[in-house]
Design brief:
Number of strands: 4
Number of domains: 1
Shape: elongated
Radius of gyration: 15 Å
Helix content: 10-25%
Distance between the termini: 47 Å
Order of helices and strands: EEEHE
Strand order of the largest sheet: 3-2-1-4
């Protein structure tokens, strides 16, 4: 991983909960709503980075931006 100030995460919807998984850090969380899941992700990433040296994780800052991509299933095109 090169030096950067952003970490990537993926948000997806399960049967009952939304799930967020950070792609570069060992962080996974969930919530009942998108907003709750994103708030949980922010907190989980902050806790994961607490006490870590950002440069050892390829980061240029101890408080990186989180870029979140959301996976959506295609809606059926039934007429």
């Amino acid at each position: 991983m090169g030096s950067k100030s952003t970490v990537m995460a993926r948000l997806s919807k399960g049967e009952k909960f939304y799930f967020a998984e950070c792609l570069e850090l060992a962080v996974v969380t969930q919530g009942k709503t998108v907003d709750e899941t994103l708030a949980n992700l922010q907190e989980a990433v902050a806790l994961h980075l607490e006490g870590e040296k950002p440069e050892e994780l390829g980061l240029t800052t101890p408080t990186p931006t989180i870029f979140v991509a959301m996976e959506l299933e295609l809606a059926s095109a039934e007429a």
